[in-house]
Write a structure and sequence with these properties.
Layout: E1 27-34, E2 39-45, E3 50-56, E4 59-65, H1 69-76
C-alpha cells in the first residue's frame, strides 16, 4: 500500500495520484545508478510523481515516491 509521503516495496500497485499501474509504461527514466545489490532507478510517472525503484534479483519495486508537482502547489495554496 502507498501513502502520500512515500511507499516501501510497492510492487504490483498503482500510482495513488493518477491510478496508472506501477509496472506499466510509460514512465520516464530520470537516472539510473548501480548498487551492490543491483541498481536504483529514478523514474517519473506520467502524472509527474517522482519514483525511486530498487532493481535486484527479486525484480523491480518502488521504494519511495513523491506527489506530483501540481499536488504540492495546490496544497500550499490552501
Amino acid at each position: 500500500m502507498t501513502s502520500s509521503t512515500g511507499a516501501t516495496g510497492t510492487t504490483g500497485t498503482f500510482c495513488p495520484y493518477c491510478g496508472w499501474p506501477d509496472d506499466a509504461e510509460p514512465f520516464q527514466v530520470v537516472s539510473r545508478h548501480g548498487t551492490a545489490e543491483g541498481s536504483t532507478v529514478w523514474t517519473r510517472c506520467g502524472c509527474g510523481s517522482l519514483q525511486v525503484r530498487a532493481v535486484d534479483g527479486r525484480g523491480a519495486r518502488i521504494v519511495s515516491r513523491s506527489r506530483p508537482a501540481d499536488v504540492w502547489s495546490r496544497a500550499a495554496g490552501q
